[in-house]
Amino acid sequence: EAEVAQSPRYKITEKSQAVAFWCDPISGHATLYWYRQILGQGPELLVQFQDESVVDDSQLPKDRFSAERLKGVDSTLKIQPAELGDSAMYLCASSFQGSEQYFGPGTRLTVT
Amino acid sequence: GEDVEQSLFLSVREGDSSVINCTYTDSSSTYLYWYKQEPGAGLQLLTYIFSNMDMKQDQRLTVLLNKKDKHLSLRIADTQTGDSAIYFCAEKTGRRALTFGSGTRLQVQP
């Protein structure tokens, strides 16, 4: 069964360092989402791509976060510099025609 | 803005039915979803319902939608210990991303 892949699964970094997460959506899924999930809360959207174009990045803290999906397939989310408040689970999801979103296993980020 | 509310915790005995409730505010929601999250894992799509439907059944899962009251529920029949997890309700409007509730922790007592 096709799955959304994410790496790394866990990342510990010191504040002010740069960190990057990678996501490979289910093959053929044009829409890709990055969500952030703070412990005890539901996921919140950071950025949404349709193919290689950004559809919604209104909640992305653009002073430190960036996201790209250059060829419309896999995607990278970067944080530079990381802050203590960025500790969270970063979830990637993809969908084919928009009704069903499938999530990857997530990257658990701890900033020390 | 949009808001999705869920109760925080539900405890049931194994074999009983579980009912997890959710309310939402966006009357233009097109789809409503239930996801399951086990500790340290991503979200697993359990089921979803189109907003013009009242009910959807899928094996042990029954989703009820009261669009007038903006109330969604998930019933799990014959709840098992493996059903212990956090359950998230989410809504989707148009091409936008999902808006999630804060999750309901289901604890199944043996």
Which assembly state applies to the chains in this document? heterodimer
Count of DSSP-assigned helices of chain B? 0
What proportion strand of chain B? Answer: over 45%
Cα(first) to Cα(last) distance of chain A is 37 Å
The share of residues in extended strands of chain A comes to: over 45%
- Name the helix and strand elements of chain B from N-terminus to C-terminus, one letter apiece: EEEEEEEEEEE
Q: Give the termini separation of chain B.
A: 41 Å
Brief overview, please?
The complex is a heterodimer of chains A (112) and B (110). Chain A is built from no helices and 11 strands. Chain A is mainly beta.
Can you give a write-up of this model?
The complex is a heterodimer of chains A (112) and B (110). Helices cover 0% and strands 49% of the residues of chain A. Chain A has 112 residues and is an all-beta fold. In chain A, strand 7 and strand 8 form a beta hairpin. The model of chain A has no long low-confidence stretch (mean pLDDT 95). By secondary structure, chain B is mainly β. In chain B, 0% of the residues lie in helices and 56% in strands. The model of chain B has no long low-confidence stretch (mean pLDDT 94). The chains are: A mainly beta (112), B mainly beta (110). The interface between A and B is medium-sized, with 25 and 22 residues.
Layout of strands and helices, then pairs:
The complex is a heterodimer of chains A (112) and B (110).
Chain A: E1 5-7, E2 10-13, E3 19-24, E4 31-37, E5 44-50, E6 53-56, E7 65-68, E8 75-79, E9 88-95, E10 102-103, E11 107-111
Parallel strand pairs in A: 2-11
Antiparallel strand pairs in A: 1-3, 3-8, 4-5, 4-9, 5-6, 7-8, 9-10, 9-11
Chain B: E1 4-6, E2 9-13, E3 18-24, E4 31-37, E5 43-50, E6 55-58, E7 61-66, E8 71-76, E9 85-92, E10 99-100, E11 104-109
Parallel strand pairs in B: 2-11
Antiparallel strand pairs in B: 1-3, 3-8, 4-5, 4-9, 6-7, 7-8, 9-10, 9-11
